[in-house]
Predict the 3D structure of the following.
Amino acid sequence: MEILSEKTGPLGGIKGDAFDDGVFDGVKKVTVGKDKHCLGYIKIEYEKDGKFETRVHGTMETILGELKEFSVKPNEYITAVGGSYNHIFNYDSVFITSLYFTTSTGRTSPKFGETNGDEFLLEGKNGGKLLGFHGRSGQLLDAIGPHFDTGVVKLGQQGGTGGNAWDHGVYIGVRKVVVTYNPPGISHIIVDYDKAGKVEMRQEGNLKGENQVPGKQYEFVLDYPNEYITSIEGSCDLVPGLTNRVRSVSFSTSTERTSPTYGGVCEKTFVLESKGKALVGFHGRAGLAIDAIGAYFGPLPVVSVVKLGQQGGTGGNTWDHGVYTGVRKVVVTYNPPGISHIIVHYDKAGKVEMRQEGNLKGENQVPGKQYEFVLDYPNEYITSIEGSCDLVPGLTNRVRSLSFKTSTKRTSPTYGGVCEKTFVLESKGKALVGLHGRAGLAIDALGAYFGPLPVVPPAENKLQG
């Protein structure tokens, strides 16, 4: 496994000798010394595979006073390097005059040296970990820059050495994978990547394979960004008379969904995954077939809208309101023994759009009792739905009760009769923006979409009389 890092800088002067400590697992301690005008000495204690290595830059020759150090605590790492640099007239050159560090817990080190000249703050993207330093030094510390973890790891290729090398690099995520199986192995792959919200397609291999006969294509579509690939399982083996090839692949996702196995599984199996990360790119080798495959795993996609699964039964028909800007009003009908009908007034770009599901008269075909819950939208929005569901004697599982909580800490009455099997639909920091479920003569099941908070327009300026 290769950790991909980003090299920033260095900032400071151009004299002294260049140094680059490279990339480690992390920084455990930094010791700094200064002379009268600037920093002259830095010692870094790195950790690599459970062992410690030290690198020293600058010298102790001009250091005044005691050395100062900053230790990183267990389960903590440095995420930012700040400081300053300036032209020191006594030395007629530019040097680092101060340094400080910020960690993943929000802790900030003491300042080493004194702020003097141009200030800087270098941070890892998405809170990336400091993995190493580079810069310039001689008798003093001329310049410094960090290596930060990008959050992306490159997993080595599985398969053979035939064909030509290819590398898709790193994208934001994967939307779709199309695999072609052409016995005896995988001959072609198409990947639809997400690149800043747009689809970019990449493909490798040969659709007709070794036999020059069209293979069978299989498509695996992700509900991206709500769903992403978390692991790739496959197998590879020698093809008689040819080289080692990828013989089968399958994909598992964040929703615990697993694709069919494409191809024929052989003895030499492999798994490509990195816990807590999502597939963001492929690399490998290909010619008339996919000879080898490797992967990049990186940060999880940013989900602006999350879809929460349905609670309740399997009766009725599926319905899905999709995603709106927000919710202005909900009208619930209770018709014993459960919720029989729901009306939602959504906000759609400033206009009201009404959607309704279920049956006002319910199973008994007698008008139920309606309850209305109005929001002070956009100043108020629904943050969670609480409910219960259970079997109705002689019928299927149904939604038996509902209540709503809002951003103003207001809670609606509980509509219906609460039973033992309760549920909560919510997503921290998001607002209700849509509902989905199942319904016939009643609300059989209910799920929800939660998304960005509504934008509150600025208050109008009032003229003072």
Summary: The radius of gyration is 30 Å. Confidence is low (pLDDT under 50) at residues 459-465. The CA atoms of residues 209 and 288 lie 5 Å apart.
